[in-house]
Amino acid sequence: MARLIFLGPPGAGKGTQAVVVATQLQLAHISTGDLLRAAVAQQSALGLEAQGYMSRGELVPDSLVLGLVRDRLQQPDTANGWILDGFPRNRSQAESLNALLAEIGQRIEQAVNLDVPDEVIVERMLARGRADDNESVIRRRLEVYREQTAPLIDFFRDRQQLLEIDGNAAVELVTERLVNALQVAAV
Ligand code: AMP
What we know:
Layout: E1 2-7, H1 14-25, E2 28-31, H2 32-42, H3 45-56, H4 62-72, E3 81-85, H5 91-103, E4 110-115, H6 118-128, H7 135-149, H8 151-158, E5 162-166, H9 171-186
Parallel strand pairs: 1-3, 1-4, 2-3, 4-5
Adenosine monophosphate binds at residues 10, 32-33, 36, 53-54, 57-60, 65, 86-87, 89, 93, 141.
């Protein structure tokens, strides 16, 4: 049963890889960024609350994101496993996720970290042209990543759940590395 976390800085290609790997391994792809952007587009109460944080490159409050993940993990398409893309983003979310999974009788199998040098990241993000992809917001998102999300690499390493992948290559090659590493890890 593949239940995977995709870590890695913004712009590392984690969203792209999560979609491709989820399709190949028939897993549900759960991106908190996508769920939040959908809520913003619908102008739901949650979306209105999240919007400001997102446009500044800050993390949306944990309780809002955790509620989205809790609902999403109860949906039937997650039965064959899932990839969480962009969640957890800090230590408190990682601990809440462990508690939530214990409650619903599931566990994380692997946390995948995609390693990409900083200069490649900024280049890729500027090329993407998303609403929160202007240079100062990108810089803030990288800072938030370093301060709050990067420490999760050690968090999962300590639990022997970490899989590190060199993400500085063509999309297809990174996918191949990922799928191979995940298959070896599953044996
Ligand atoms: P992403 O698409 O993963 O790059 O996320 C885009 C934005 O959504 C982030 O910059 C945050 O503002 C927000 N976001 C996504 N996932 C989370 C999360 N797990 N916790 C808090 N905020 C999040």
